[in-house]
Amino acid sequence: MGMAGLGCAWNLTKNKTNINLLLLEKSQKVGGRATSNSRHGYTYDHGANYFTFEGLSQSQRVIDIIQKQLPTDDLVHITKELYLFDKDSKIYQTKETQQTEKLTYRKGLIQLAELIQQDQDLNVKFEYFVDNLKYSQDTKKWTITYQDKANNGNKQDVVSTNYILLTPPAPQIVDLFKKSEYHKKDEVIQIFEKCKYKKQLCLVIAFEKKIQDIPYFALLNEDRQHSIVWITVEDQKEGHVPENKSLIICQMSEQFSDENYEASNEVVIQKAKESLNKLMPQLEQQKMFESQKFCWVKRWRYALPNNYKVSEESLQEFQQDGLFFAGDFLIGRGRVLQAFEKGLLASDQIQAKL
Ligand SMILES: Cc1cc2nc3c(=O)[nH]c(=O)nc-3n(C[C@H](O)[C@H](O)[C@H](O)COP(=O)(O)OP(=O)(O)OC[C@H]3O[C@@H](n4cnc5c(N)ncnc54)[C@H](O)[C@@H]3O)c2cc1C
After folding, report:
1. 30 lines ligand 1 (CB under 6 A)
2. Looking at the whole model, is its pTM more than 0.90?
3. Does the domain spanning 3-26+127-193+306-353 belong to CATH 3.50.50.60?
4. What would the DSSP string read from start to end of 72-122?
5. Staple partner for 48: which of 34, 73, 89, 153, CB 3.0–4.6 Å?
């Protein structure tokens, strides 16, 4: 249950709509790509790194939820600046106007999803994989077949419903409809096939001592010609990293991720570290790798939409069959709060049909 699904379920429950919700999530946690891990006392946001209130169409609605309706005790404002770098690993400061308010939570970005779930006591069924859909034009009902992955996928259940909201990344929606029975499945597949997602390899490197003299919280490759696209120093986020220790997230470029996606962890780590040492020479100067606590490679098969946005108008015709969609494929880029907002808007559309 990612941010779009949570936005919809949260609003439908909050408005006390008389709907019996069934929330199916294939993984073990809420958050989807807005996620975090905690390991050996280090907390890190290895999916989305932070969120901003930028680019929202109903910004006041979303700001009110985050700042007034949900608890704010653990909300963390990232105060250090974002710097840029070029293909030659030259680092430079951004113009002040490019600095926007960046937020996460003390226990990691996943806390946002957890707070939303807890606020309305949403009963998410974890490790339930939606395998197949079937629509009957006679009864105007959907039949969903899902697998209980906790039982090794052996247990298959079927449920019948009038309305469905789908929020996986576009390529996974295509996979689902290829297996499903729906008289408009070819139209759905055609629409979502156009929205490709980028792969991303991500390294999480924890150190038992603190990297000194880092003036920034993150580095972004502006010309997109470097093999690294983004680095975050997670120590700059309150509550994430124990005192006097460090953790960096290193997100590799689209090209690097495509070329090395199937390579072993050892190969990915070795190649990534070569680039990292050029970009952050203080790592070698301060002998940081001698105090490395752990290094983990996260592979995101569907990390971010590749700048193509599915048109909301093209999806309207499915609403008469009770079929709704929300997610970052409607934005064309990866954005936590915009995905959440798309979920809120989907709940408005569903409520209008009730
Ligand atoms: C590496 C990375 C860095 C990013 N950085 C940022 C950032 O700094 N700032 C920012 O705002 N955004 C960032 N993003 C993008 C942001 O995380 C996403 O745009 C947003 O979280 C998408 O939410 P969603 O609900 O649309 O999709 P998802 O989060 O993908 O949610 C879909 C959910 O559906 C579940 N699912 C899929 N298929 C099935 C199935 N068949 N059955 C049951 N469940 C299923 C999935 O497990 C998942 O929980 C980043 C993303 C990545 C991967």
Report:
1. no
2. yes
3. yes
4. -TTEEEE-SEEEEE-TT--EEEPPGGG---EEEETT-THHHHHHHHHHTT-
5. 34
